[in-house]
Amino acid sequence: MASAMTVIEIRIELKKGVADPEGKNTQKTLESLGFGGISAVRTVKLFEVEVDAPADEALKQGEEMCRKLLANPVIQNFRVTVR
């Protein structure tokens, strides 16, 4: 039987109210380059992980990866989706 390779996408972003200096600096630089109308820039980390498991198990593994390593639950939210 062939293995069930699943691709999960893990999106990690700062919680509302947490300072995002990289986003602010990027916004300032974009504005200085002439890009107008920018109300906010936020940084987001995106991981694409291939897991040798069915979709439901891959989703659980992705959430566990976030809890153990990829996300800081004090200042970050994460979302795991199967692609």
Report what the structure shows.
This protein is an alpha+beta fold and 83 residues long. The chain has a single domain (5-82), classed as 2-Layer Sandwich (Mth169, Chain: A), CATH 3.30.1280. It has helices at residues 21-32, 55-70; strands at residues 5-14, 44-52, 76-82. The radius of gyration is 17 Å and the shape is elongated. It starts with a strand and ends with a strand. The mean pLDDT is 96.
Please name the defining characteristics of this protein.
elongated; 2 helices; 83 residues; alpha+beta; 3 strands; Mth169, Chain: A; 34% helix; three-stranded antiparallel beta sheet
Indicate the structural class: alpha+beta
User: What average pLDDT do the residues reach?
Assistant: 96
Structural domains: how many: 1
Helix content: 25-40%
Entry summary:
The protein is α+β, with helices and mostly antiparallel strands and 83 residues long. The protein is built from two helices and three strands. A three-stranded antiparallel β-sheet has the order 2-1-3, with helices on one face.
Break the fold down into its secondary structure elements and pairings.
Elements: E1 5-14, H1 21-32, E2 44-52, H2 55-70, E3 76-82
Antiparallel strand pairs: 1-2, 1-3
